Amino acid sequence: MGRKLGVVGIIAAVVLAVIVLAATLAPWIAPYDPDYPDLFAALSGPSAEHLLGADALGRDLFTRLLYGARITLLGPTLVILIATVVGTLLALIAAWNRGFVDTAISWVLDVLFSVPGIVFALIAVAIFGPDLLVVVIGLSIGYIPYVARVVRGAALRERGMPYVQAAWLQGQSGIGISLRQILPNVQPIVVAQAVSSLGFAVIDLAAVSFLGLGVQPPTADLGLMVKSGFDSVLRGQPLEAIAAGLAIVLIVWSITVIGDRLASNTRSIR
């Protein structure tokens, strides 16, 4: 794995692992309740009591950063998980059946591909109201074609391989061949595409939260912290916006680097 990622990739993996570990252990390592206000500490700078200072309500920024990273990682992960499962299934169905089925699925994917994922999220919010689950489902719809189009191309190549024809002549069903023969061989491409898309999902979810349409206060979320941090900047406390923005940048950078390395290795194998 180290050779596949390279030096920069390993650094990115370490950074991402540290962030994931810190977010996972937030209930045990965070010094305060993320929603507990202390008006006496409002907009205070870094100190022994508050490592990164406090926000306008006196909530500890370090604590909210840890808890905010949990949602910032969990939401996009759910988006890509749903999009990858649905997109891969559609790709396998299209690649195996060809003809009308392939044409119909490709047409639907083209329509979805023409609309940015964040637009689906905004439409979902407009219909069902601001909520994390609503945004996740909306973004998932937008990310399905990114996975499906790549996997479909790989599955089409595998469908013409001799081992597939041999399995068909042995009487195996199309579903069985697709799941047991083709899917394992396109799995590296599926994983690389999923990881590459994850960074974009982090940005989209943070953008929706920044607009106030995703995670709702007082829940800690990095995108929401950047938004609330803008008001604190005007009051002389820029750390909330800086810390949350830097955390988003590190998460997206590490995921993007890992995804690029995986995609490069997948192309070299092919």
From TrEMBL:
<dbReference type="InterPro" id="IPR035906">
    <property type="entry name" value="MetI-like_sf"/>
</dbReference>
<dbReference type="Pfam" id="PF12911">
    <property type="entry name" value="OppC_N"/>
</dbReference>
<feature type="transmembrane region" description="Helical">
    <location>
        <begin position="7"/>
        <end position="30"/>
    </location>
</feature>
<feature type="domain" description="ABC transmembrane type-1">
    <location>
        <begin position="69"/>
        <end position="259"/>
    </location>
</feature>
<keyword id="KW-0813">Transport</keyword>
<feature type="transmembrane region" description="Helical">
    <location>
        <begin position="71"/>
        <end position="95"/>
    </location>
</feature>
<feature type="transmembrane region" description="Helical">
    <location>
        <begin position="133"/>
        <end position="151"/>
    </location>
</feature>
<protein>
    <submittedName>
        <fullName>ABC transporter permease</fullName>
    </submittedName>
</protein>
<dbReference type="InterPro" id="IPR050366">
    <property type="entry name" value="BP-dependent_transpt_permease"/>
</dbReference>
<keyword id="KW-0472">Membrane</keyword>
<dbReference type="InterPro" id="IPR000515">
    <property type="entry name" value="MetI-like"/>
</dbReference>
<keyword id="KW-0812">Transmembrane</keyword>
<keyword id="KW-1133">Transmembrane helix</keyword>
<feature type="transmembrane region" description="Helical">
    <location>
        <begin position="241"/>
        <end position="263"/>
    </location>
</feature>
<keyword id="KW-1003">Cell membrane</keyword>
<dbReference type="InterPro" id="IPR025966">
    <property type="entry name" value="OppC_N"/>
</dbReference>
<feature type="transmembrane region" description="Helical">
    <location>
        <begin position="107"/>
        <end position="127"/>
    </location>
</feature>
<feature type="transmembrane region" description="Helical">
    <location>
        <begin position="189"/>
        <end position="215"/>
    </location>
</feature>
<comment type="similarity">
    <text>Belongs to the binding-protein-dependent transport system permease family.</text>
</comment>
<dbReference type="Pfam" id="PF00528">
    <property type="entry name" value="BPD_transp_1"/>
</dbReference>
